Amino acid sequence: MGEKIMVKGTEAIGEAAIRAGCKVYFGYPITPQSELTEYMSRRMPQEGRVFLQAESEVATVNMMYGASSVGVRVMTSTSSPGFSLMQEGISYMANARLPAVFVDVVRGGPGLGDIQPSQGDYFQVVKGGGHGDYRLPVYSPSSLQEAVELTIHAFDVADKYRTPVVIFADGMLGQMMEPVEFPDPVDPSTLPSKDDWALTGARGRKARYVTSFDIDPYKLEQMNLVLQETYKKIEAEEKKWEEFMTDDAEIIFVAHGTVGRIVKSTVKMAREKGIKAGLFRPISLYPFPYERLAELAEKVDIVMTVEMSAGQMLEDVKLAVMGRAETPFYGRLAGVIPTPAEILEAMMKEIRR
Amino acid sequence: MEHRIIAAGFGGQGVMLFGQIIALAGMIEDKHVTWLPSYGPEMRGGTANCTVVVSDDPVASPVVDMPNEIAIFNIPSLLKFEPTLAEGGILVMNTSMIDREPQRKDIKVIKIAANDVAEKLGNVKAQNMVMLGAFIETTKVVSKESVFKALEKKMTGKKAAFLDLNKRAVEEGMKLAREQL
Amino acid sequence: MSEQVKDAILLASMPKALNGKEFTYCPGCHHGIVHRLVAELIDEFGLREKTLLVAPVGCSVFAYEFFDVDGTVAPHGRALAVATGMKRAKPEMFVLTYQGDGDLAAIGTAETIHAANRGERVTTVFINNAVYGMTGGQMAPTTLLGMKTTTSPYGRDPKREGYPIHMMEIMRALPGVAYAERVKVSRPQDVPKAKMAIKKAFYAQLLDVGFGIVEVLSTCPTNWGMDPVEASRWLEENMVKEFPLGVYVDKVTEVMKEKGVK
């Protein structure tokens, strides 16, 4: 670890990717993440790596497909409408088992929406916005230090399971500044070899194909089953969450990413009022930490979800809680950021009910 | 202790830099800090504000609905943020740009004709540093030494030429605030 | 060994870049001829171990089944974006896309034009048979005026469906293109010419000149509702008129001369 430096969220993620050994970055400008694209355009050539501005997000995701298929670490960043455009390619990459890291700096929607922070892409990112039976590991950082760590982790998870991975960020995380410490760059020689599957040229071996395609349904089913096995492993090994003051909590908030952080302030305010609140913050949105949340729900009356959406993660919370507690919801839409005080007020209403 | 700060004005008044220097100085003092900007859709000339939290503990919410210290650079920002200031909070305002009085009686107000002061120092652009001096003198959020270190970190290359001017502006702001305390 | 003997041996043997599997394309389809030409060139350049083949969505989605080189199948229209990703990540590889008219000139037009305009060091073989073959004979961007397809049952009317798109003419407007030629393979004497064109498009990449593309006018007897001979005749009489053969861009020959390459 080096010294602490003050960086913007977009820079934190970009620099983390570089230190994780990201060899190629493709991207297309879209607010509020263009600074990450700009950062990579400046830094990647300095490191002797590849930056290319694509003609669209559709082209971007397919360039990633190509770069990943030859075995290098590859990343893009985009914001919601751009992420929508990438869905077809992500579905192809999932079935072709191509590792890659996508950063979705989520903004207000639907449609052109606005350029303010939102979490309204939860369904699309977490449940799979493209076609077919696939899942993507998704990480939702709430601080810049965590964004650095999760970005690096995302590359490792992508390679380990041969899958695209998403960093679910929002414009608040992207724009804010906070001190972070970057780890030393990874030594490329320590990265896992991809020679057993990547397209390296048919030298001294049979030709091989990286593909998401088989016209024979029985063979395609086998490919699908490999994916499903992979997802089982991911669900068993990759769940991440944070608990804040849950030990003696009587009401538990569930919030992810930057909202998780805002709710921490609400928890403190509630405690000052003598209300034992706590926070459960899922860090991996897929795999969602259902089991631990279920345990916590046993001990409380209220599990309250807060999101910058109309209630999308709420469905996963309900699947975890399964009627063990009330599951009220508070959300702001379209790029409006909820404040600690208004969340507290919403909580008080639920308590009085 | 947690300083929850909002600095607000027009784009181009150096409001963002004002906040960044405080955050950077806080980091230099090993405090926990966040800096969160809020832009209007305009690139120049629109309203701009930033929220800075400087705390002894890890910062929870970088979003603040009730700041305890605000630095106000224009009238729209005064109208918007004065009502949100916590009881007993501190308002530092640039009276070169604001020709009206704050309404609240339960807050501490420091008035600085920052543009005039900066102009006398040789460059009106340093008005944000005059405001910064007054702000740190009043709130004690960070020390002058840390601010200077932060300025040195931030103002490199071509900007280094303005380092001295900025430091003098900070000192001048501190002096003017001291006179009102 | 005389040239004739060499040719005879070449014709009788299977190129190493093909794996020997029997083509599953329809009788009279030109994919088989063009596959072979590409494979022969891969052999002649000694590129088999360096080649990455990007197959499209369309009939030639199966190309990778027949070539004994590493490869992938791109999403429909995105072959040149995938190829760009490969080449940028591993510039030492030889990257080849093989695409049909729907793939390259309809759904993938943006990717085609921008890859060409960037001068991506990749080579594209573009099969234009004026129809969507795999999905059952629907209208293609290159369908001729008046031509009936399953989605232009009254014949292509420019007022309704617009005009056939001319990709080589578009390529001429893009500075990143190093080689662009339109050829056909419907008569035996066309074949060596087509091979030479593809060879130049290989050189565009190998000599680092720019993007190389060859459009091959091809038949689709099945969807045209003709026998193979009839289809070839129809191509000669109709497609060649609409899509003039010839070299549209050539920055390669000069570089070949400079470098003493034949």
3D architecture notes:
The complex is a heterotrimer of chains A (about 350), B (about 180) and C (about 260). Chain A folds into 2 domains: about 5-195 and about 210-235, Thiamin diphosphate (ThDP)-binding fold, Pyr/PP domains (Rossmann fold, 3-Layer(aba) Sandwich); about 240-350, Rossmann fold (3-Layer(aba) Sandwich). Helices cover about 40% and strands about 20% of the residues of chain A. Chain A contains 13 helices and 15 strands. In chain A, strand 11 (about 250-255), helix 10 (about 255-270) and strand 12 (about 275-280) form a beta-alpha-beta unit. The radius of gyration of chain A is 20 Å and the shape is globular. In chain A, about 55% of the residues are buried. By secondary structure, chain B is an alpha/beta fold. Chain B has a single domain, classed as Pyruvate-ferredoxin oxidoreductase, PFOR, domain III (Pyruvate-ferredoxin Oxidoreductase, domain 3, 3-Layer(aba) Sandwich), CATH 3.40.920. Chain B has 6 helices and 6 strands, in the order βαβββαββαααα. A 6-stranded mixed β-sheet of chain B has the order 2-3-1-4-5-6, sandwiched between helices. Chain B is globular, with a radius of gyration of 15 Å. The model of chain B has no long low-confidence stretch (mean pLDDT about 95). By secondary structure, chain C is α/β, with parallel strands linked by helices. Chain C has 12 helices and 9 strands. In chain C, the strands form 2 sheets. A 7-stranded mixed β-sheet of chain C has the order 2-1-3-4-8-7-9, sandwiched between helices. A two-stranded antiparallel ribbon of chain C has the order 5-6. In chain C, a hairpin with a 5-residue loop joins strand 5 (about 130) and strand 6 (about 140). Classes of the chains: A alpha/beta (about 350), B alpha/beta (about 180), C alpha/beta (about 260). The interface between A and C is large, with 40 and 33 residues.
